[in-house]
Design a protein that fits this description.
Largest sheet: 6 strands, antiparallel
Shape: globular
Order of helices and strands: HEEEEHEEHEEEEHEE
Helix content: 25-40%
Radius of gyration: 19 Å
Strand content: 25-35%
């Protein structure tokens, strides 16, 4: 009996270690693929002093993904999207019906705080090093979207920023993702938001079961 119990414990340990390694591989791969994105569009990557972080701007200039250099110094969110408001008002949005703080200087802002830790770095602070801090300290905020073969940062409330795991095998290198419900509730016709695609996207529910949910997508091929 003792040998059987020890054998079961050993198997459980192997499974646990394997799972940890898989999570670590996902984390490392997300960082290397994100670096490929940043390296492909250096002119679209910049320091964002107002948010104490970095920004990756869409090729058409209509949207940004912003991530923090230091969770303890982020004025609003540690990770966020900033997108042009006009396509949403043109599609019927009543800005007074949008949640407080979502509209800022003719932009829509969605995001989340990851914590209040002060981040320290070895050497120069760079955009990829700041992303690697997210992987290192807030691993649960990094997701893998199997249906699109994308990694992504979860901005909560159904909002995401995603990028291709492999740019060479994907026609959607970066995707800005918004939950359409809050906009529909504010009067938006989601099929009329210029520059955005209203679509059903396959994802997983809390139990790992495949489901399809409504999303507003702004995809770009940057190769």
């Amino acid at each position: 009996m003792k040998k059987i119990v020890l054998g079961i414990m050993a198997m459980a340990t192997v499974v646990t270690l394997t799972s940890c390694r898989q999570l670590d591989v996902v984390g490392k791969t997300s960082a290397s693929s994100f670096k490929q994105i940043l390296d492909a569009v250096p002119s679209q990557v910049a320091a964002d002093e107002s948010e104490n972080g970095w920004s990756l701007t869409a090729p058409d200039g209509s949207a940004k993904f912003i991530w923090s250099k230091d969770f303890n110094k982020s004025p609003i969110y540690d990770v966020m999207l900033e997108v042009d408001l006009k396509p949403f008002t043109n599609a019927g949005a009543d800005v007074n019906k949008l949640p407080g703080g979502m509209v800022k200087d003719n932009k829509i802002v969605v995001g989340t705080s990851l914590g209040n830790e002060s981040l320290s770095y070895d050497g120069e602070v760079t955009p990829i090093k700041s992303y690697e801090k997210i992987v290192e300290m807030k691993r649960d905020s990094v997701k893998y979207h199997a249906a699109l073969d994308h990694f992504g940062v979860d901005l909560e409330n159904g909002n995401m920023f995603e990028w291709a795991k492999d740019m060479g095998h994907n026609d959607k290198d970066i995707v800005f993702v918004l939950n359409p419900k809050v906009f529909i509730d504010a009067g938006v016709d989601p099929n009329k938001v210029e520059g955005w695609v209203f679509a059903k996207v396959e994802t997983m529910d809390a139990k790992g079961k495949p489901i399809k949910v409504d999303k507003l997508l702004k995809p770009f091929n940057i190769k």
